[in-house]
Recover the amino acids of this structure.
């Protein structure tokens, strides 16, 4: 067995995801009179030109995140398609009651687009960290959740969300993979095992490059997911087919175990082992640090993923 791969830092996305999002939605406002943007100060400067063109459809409410979701629900009930944007903890956690009631319970659909995923904004402190955002939304039914791993993946996912009427969460990150991948609704096979191994690794969004480096010396299939809800249960079942026992490792850039119940449902008809790797539940990193510091603390750097993968698959 070869040595653990040399650590590779997660690259900063060349074209920032947030810039891609704001540029694309600003242009979409010109073409689709149904669209509206609801802000809580964050990125208001990036929508300034669009606000001058469409002052009735770009609404900045200041730091009133609960009101922001309520306004989005009201706009949706009038037939508009609201796009709601701020940092993840202020988009999902702080106004969760409004997300649950003003959107979900009323049957009102919106597109929620966050920035500062997990601890991308670690330099702001714990108030700006939200590794539990997907798990929180997972407590509600009928949400679509996209986790792009590259800025070029944002546009097709965003276009799909704007055309829909339901609730969609798009989780943007300041870091990502070196190249974009296809972003269909299912799992995409990036690297296939030899067939002798029952190991499958699901890499979510910006975790792909690190997963590929970390598992380079393992005979496993690596699949990529930019859409995690609905989870591609059928696709995972097919990847694990033919093995007497399936071994599945899910590497997520948010709270570990968020998709464990999806893996269990996908493989409920066969014996399987699963391991979840994400932001650790058993500790809180209290130092601000850098995102790379937090990666190391949670075992989400390349070396940490490699160690967990070897421990799991080579038993």
């Amino acid at each position: 067995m070869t040595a653990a791969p040399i650590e590779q830092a997660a690259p900063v996305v060349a074209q920032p995801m947030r810039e891609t999002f704001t540029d694309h939605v600003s242009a979409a406002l010109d073409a689709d009179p149904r669209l509206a943007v609801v802000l809580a100060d964050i990125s208001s400067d990036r929508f300034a030109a669009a606000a001058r063109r469409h002052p009735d459809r770009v609404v900045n409410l200041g730091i009133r995140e609960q009101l922001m979701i309520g306004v989005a629900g009201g706009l949706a009930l009038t037939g508009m398609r609201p796009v709601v944007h701020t940092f993840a903890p202020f988009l999902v956690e702080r106004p969760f009651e409004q997300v649950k009631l003003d959107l979900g319970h009323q049957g009102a659909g919106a597109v929620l687009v966050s920035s500062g995923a997990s601890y991308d904004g670690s330099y702001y402190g714990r108030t700006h960290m939200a590794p539990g955002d997907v798990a929180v939304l997972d407590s509600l039914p009928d949400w679509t959740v996209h986790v792009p791993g590259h800025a070029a993946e944002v546009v097709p996912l965003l276009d799909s969300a704007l055309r829909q009427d339901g609730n969609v969460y798009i989780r943007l990150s300041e870091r990502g993979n070196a190249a974009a991948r296809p972003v269909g609704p299912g799992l995409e096979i990036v690297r296939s095992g030899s067939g002798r191994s029952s190991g499958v690794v699901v890499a979510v969004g910006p975790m792909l490059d690190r997963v590929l480096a970390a598992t380079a010396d393992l005979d496993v299939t690596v699949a990529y997911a930019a859409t995690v809800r609905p989870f591609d249960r059928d696709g995972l079942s097919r990847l694990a087919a033919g093995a007497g026992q399936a071994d599945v490792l899910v590497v997520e850039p948010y709270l570990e175990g968020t998709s464990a119940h999806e893996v269990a449902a996908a493989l409920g008809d066969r014996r399987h082992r699963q391991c979840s790797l994400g932001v650790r539940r058993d500790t809180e990193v209290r130092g601000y640090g850098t995102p790379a510091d937090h990666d190391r603390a949670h075992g989400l750097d390349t070396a940490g993923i490699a160690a967990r993968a070897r421990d799991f698959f080579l038993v």
Remarks:
- The chain has twelve helices and twelve strands.
- The longest strand covers residues 246-255.
